[in-house]
Amino acid sequence: MSKELHDQINAELKAFQEDPVAFMQRRPAKFEEMPGSGSYAQPVFNQAALDRHDDVAARDMFRKQAVDSGQLDGSARAVFLDNDRADQLTDTFSHSGLMSMEANGLMSARLAESPWSDDYWGIYLGVLGKRYADSSFPRSLDWKVNFDYIQSNPAATILASGNQNAVNKLSPSEKYDILVGDKQFSLTKQMWEEGRGYYERNGSVETWMGICHGWSPAAYMLPRPVNSVTVLAADGQTKLTFYPSDIKALASLLWAKVAPRAKFIGGRCNDSAPQTDPQTGRILAQNCFDTNPGTWHLAIVNQIGVSQRSMVMDATYDYQVWNQPVLAYSYSYFNPATGSAVGSLAQATVAKASFSNDKFAAYRGTQTASIVGIAMEVEYVVETLPTQNFPDGPQRDRTNKVRYLYDLELDFSGRIIGGEWYQNAHPDFLWTPAKGARALPPWEARSPINPADWLNGQPIPGTWPQIAAITSEYSKTPMAAIVERLIQLAR
Q1: Could you give the CA distance from residue 79 to residue 60 in angstroms, rounded to a whole number?
Q2: If DSSP codes are grouped into helix, strand and coil, which group holds residue 432?
Q3: Which of 211, 243, 247 is CA-nearest to residue 230?
Q4: Could you tell me which residues are beta bridge partners of residue 40?
C-alpha cells in the first residue's frame, strides 16, 4: 500500500468515525484511471436527473424488465439471502475466505483482455439511427429535432447520390439496412420508434435511456472489432465501410435485444429514498441494502481474479455509472475498531466480542466471529463517443476507478458470511451471461446460421436478406451471424 493510498483511506475512515451519517451519504472516491483517446459519451445521469432520483427509477425499470423477460435470473439474499449468493454468479467459486485469497495472490487482479468501450446509444438520439459521423446531425436533447433531420435527409437519397463519403457517414443501422438490401430501412425505423412512444406520451425522451445493458455484456462476450471493414451490399454493387464503432453498435444492440439468460445477484428496491438508521445512516430496508459487501467481495475475487472473466456491475450512484463491465480490482485492509489502514490481515481482524465501538453491532450476523475492514479499488470500463477511428484497441478505451470501504464478517473458520458498507452508494446488483453464451434472435436460435457462410468480398448469402428483414421488424435487432462475421473480418 502506497503512503498516498494509506493517507487517503485513513482520512476517509476518520470522517466516518466522526460523522457516520454524513459519511454514509458521501459518494465513493472516484477518479479517471485510463483516459483513452476518445471522448466521453453524453453522461447517462446529470445532476438534475440524480436530484429527481432518475437513477433509481432507471435501475428498477431495467431490473424488472430484464427479470420479467427472462434475461436475468432473479431467483438466484440468511446472512446472505437466496438472491445474494456469489456462487450463483461466478464461473468458478473456489475461495470463500480472506486467508486463501491472500495466499493465492488474489488481493488484486486484472483481466488479460479489457472489455471494449462503446457508446450507450441514447434513445433520444435515435439509438443506432444516430449519424454520429455527420457534423450536421443536430445531437439535440429533443428527440424530434433529431428525428426530423433524418426525415429531411433520408438515407435512400444519400445512397442514390453515389457520394461514398456521405454513405460512410450514415448511421450504423442505416448501413446495416443497406447491407442486407432492406429498402424499407426496417432496423433504422425501429431505432427511431424506440423514442416515438416516449415522446408522444411525455413530450420528451429521457437522456439516460439507451442500450448500456447491451453494450456492457457485449464488450466482453464478443471480441473487439479492431479494424474497419469494407463489404459488398446485397445489391452486389454498393460498398459499405463499417468502422469499429459501427460494429460495436450492432453488437451492443444485439445483446440488448436478444441476450441469453444471465446470472444475477442483488435485491430490488422500489424506494427512491429508503429509510436509514438515524445513528449510522445505514439503509434499513433489506432490499434497498442491495448486494451485501460479503457477496460483492466473494463475487469480484472469484470472477475477476479466479475465473478471469468480466461481470457487469450496476452502481447508479452517479451520472457515469450504470451498467459497467469490470476490468480490475485491488484491495487492502483497515482495522474497523481503530479506523486505520493496516498492512496485514492479522492487524485488520477484530473479534466481534471485543469490538465495543462497532457502529453496526445491531446488524451483525449471529455466526459472526470476527470483522475485517476492506478498502477496495475497482476499475471499470466506461462509455465513449463513437468515431470513425481505427484501429481500435485498449488505448481508445476509457476506464474509471472507484474506492469502496466496507467490512467483512467472518465465521469461526474464517469464511466470509456477510458485512457492512461504509457508504450507501455501492454496487446495487451484479450480473453476467454464462461463459460462451450467444445472443441469438428467435429465427437464428431455431435454425442456426454459420457466420462463415458469408464469404469475404461477397454479398450476404441468398436467404439472409429475408431473415434480416424479419429479425429487424420483429426483434428490433441485427442478425447475430452478420454481427459476428463483421467482428471476424474486423480482426
Answers
A1: 24
A2: strand
A3: 243
A4: 384
| Band of pLDDT at residue 318, cut at 50, 70 and 90 | very low
Structure-block grid coordinates of residue 126 = 435515435
Q: How far apart are CA 24 and CA 204, in angstroms?
A: 34
- Asked which of 97-106, 266-275, 279-288 is least confident by mean pLDDT, the reply is 266-275
CA distance 374 to 360: 15
194 vs 203: CA distance, rounded Å: 14
Digit-coded pLDDT (tens) for 19-77: 999 998 888 887 766 666 555 555 566 667 666 767 666 666 666 666 555 665 544 33
Chain-centre distance for alpha carbon 323: 3
- Rounded Cα gap, residues 328 and 376, in angstroms: 10
Contact predicate 295/86, CB 8 Å: yes
Place of cell 440524480: 50
Q: Are strands 262-265 and 312-314 parallel, antiparallel or unpaired?
A: unpaired
Does residue 232 sit in helix, strand or coil?
strand
Beta bridge partners of 350: 371
| Bond prior to 391 in cis (omega within 30° of 0) | yes
Which residues contact residue 277 at a Cβ distance below 8 angstroms, ignoring those fewer than 6 apart?
284
Distance CA 118, CA 175 (A): 18
Confidence of residue 277 (pLDDT cuts 50, 70, 90): confident
How many residues are there in the chain?
Answer: 491
Predicted TM-score (pTM) above 0.85: yes
Strand-pairing partners, residue 326, are 380
The letter for the amino acid at 346 is A
Residue-wise DSSP of 74-120? TT----S-TT--GGGT-S-----BHHHHHHTT-SEEE-SSPPPP---
Q: How far is it, in rounded angstroms, from Cα 237 to Cα 455?
A: 15
Cα separation, 418 vs 396, whole angstroms:
38
Q: DSSP string of 353-387?
A: GG-TT-TTGGG--TT--EEEEEEEEEEEEE-B---
Q: By mean pLDDT, which of 113-117, 163-167, 260-264, 313-317 is the weakest?
A: 313-317
**Cα of 432 vs its chain's centroid, Å:** 10
pLDDT for 1-29, tens place per residue? 789 999 999 999 999 999 999 998 888 88
Element (H, E) at 349: strand 349-351
- Asked whether 63 and 268 are in contact (CB, 8 A), the reply is yes
Q: 262-265 and 72-73: which strand pairing?
A: parallel
Output phi, psi for 27, to 5 deg. -80, 140
| Residue whose C-alpha is closest to residue 355's, from 375, 374, 371, 366 | 371
Q: Which amino acid is at 119?
A: D
Q: Measuring CA to CA, which residue among 265, 307, 296, 263 is closest to residue 437?
A: 263
